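Record Sugar ABC transporter permease, 434 aa.
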Amino acid sequence: MPRIPRGRRVVAAGFLLPALLLLGALVVYPIGYSVRRSLFDRSDSSFVGLDNYLALVTDESLRTAVRNNLIWLVVAPAVATALGLVFAVLTERVRWGTAFKLVVFMPMAISMLAAGIIFRLVYEQDPDRGVANAVWVGVHDTFAESSGFPRARPLPAHPLEAAGGGAYATKEPVRAGVPVLLPLVGVAPGQMPRDARPAHAPTATGTGTGTVTGTAWLDFTRGGGGKPNVVDPEELGLKGLRIEAVRDGKVVATATAAADGRFTLPADRADGAVLRLPASNFREQYNGVEWLGPSLVTPAVIGAYVWMWAGFAMVLIGAGLAAVPRELLEAARVDGANEWQVFRRITVPLLAPVLVVVLVTLMINVLKVFDLVFVIAPGSAQDDANVLALQLYRSSFGTDADLGVGSAIAVVLLLLVLPVMVVNIRRIRRETRR
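=>
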C-alpha cells in the first residue's frame, strides 16, 4: 500500500477538522456529559453511582415508561412494516395505485405535533366530535338498539315502583277499560323524539272492553304550571316507549307508545297483569370507547404512529419490489404456485433486505417517540402512556426536575439504540462488499 505523503495528510486533516469539531461539540461532548451527570444527584454535588439507574426499576412511572417502550418497540415497527408491505404489493395490481400511494404517504408531510392534534380530536370521547367514536357508535347502534329515554324516571307520588335492574312496574294490576297513566320525568327536551306529539289524555271505556289502554308521556311543562300525574296540553307523548304486560313473572303482551303516547294491549292477556317499563327504555346511551383511557391510550397512540409511518414503509418496500425480477414470479406461477405461495416464498424472501432496513429504521424511530404521546395522551392518562423519551423530558424539565435521573434515561436510550445501529451498519457493509 503506497504511503500517503505528510503534506496530503495535513490537508486531509484540515478538511476533516471542522466536521470533527462539530461532531465533538454536538455528539461526543453531550454524551460524555450525560454519562457523568447520570452518576450525580439532583443538585450535581454528590456522587450517587448507579442510584439514578436503579430508579428506572424501582419508580412506578419509570417502570411504566420502560414497559411501554418495549410495547412500542415490538408492535409499532412490525405493524407499520407489515402494512407497508401489503400496500406496496397490492398497489401494483390496481390502476389507481399511484394515487393510493400518494394518499398513504401524505401523512409523512405532517409534523408529529400536527398529527398528535389531529388524533387527539379523532379519539375525542364525545361521538359528536370524535371520528373514532362516531364510527364505533354508528356500528354499535346498527346491531344493538339504543335507549330511547335515558335517565327517565317516575315521580315519587305515582303508582310506579322500581322493579329491579332499572325497570319500573305498576304497583297494582291493570284492568280492561280503565285507562293507565304512565307519566315520566327526567327526559331533556333535546332527547325527545322529533315527531313526538302532544300527549292524548286517555278516557275510561268501561270494564269488559277488549283492550287495556293508556298513555305514556313526559309529565313536564316548560315554564311550569303543569299538574303532576295529569296530561297537560303542552306535554308530549313518549313515542317508542316499550311497555310489557307481566303475569306470574312472564311477559304475556307487549306494546309501544305512539307519537301521542297512547298504547293498547289485548285484554285477554293483559287484564289483571302488571305493566312493566323494561330497563332497555332507560339505560344510558352508548357513547363509544374511551380511546384515551388508561387501558387503550398506548394502542391509540401507536395507531396514530402507524398512520404516519406506514407510507414511509410502503415507499421503501415499493422501491425494492420494483427491483424484484419478474421472471422468477412468472416462473413460479407457471409451475403452479398460487398468489399466496408466490408472495410468501418468493416476494418476501427477495424483499428481506429492504424489510430489515425499514424495520430497523422504525425501531430506532420509536425509541425516540415523544411528540405523539405528549400531545395525544390527556393529563389523566399520560402516566399510563408514558415512554422513556417523555419521561426524559418530565424528569429533566418538569416541576420536580431531577437532571440525574433525566441523564440516566438519556444514557439508557442511547444504549438501546446502539445495538440496532450496529446491526444496521454491519448489514450495510455486507451489502457494500457484494
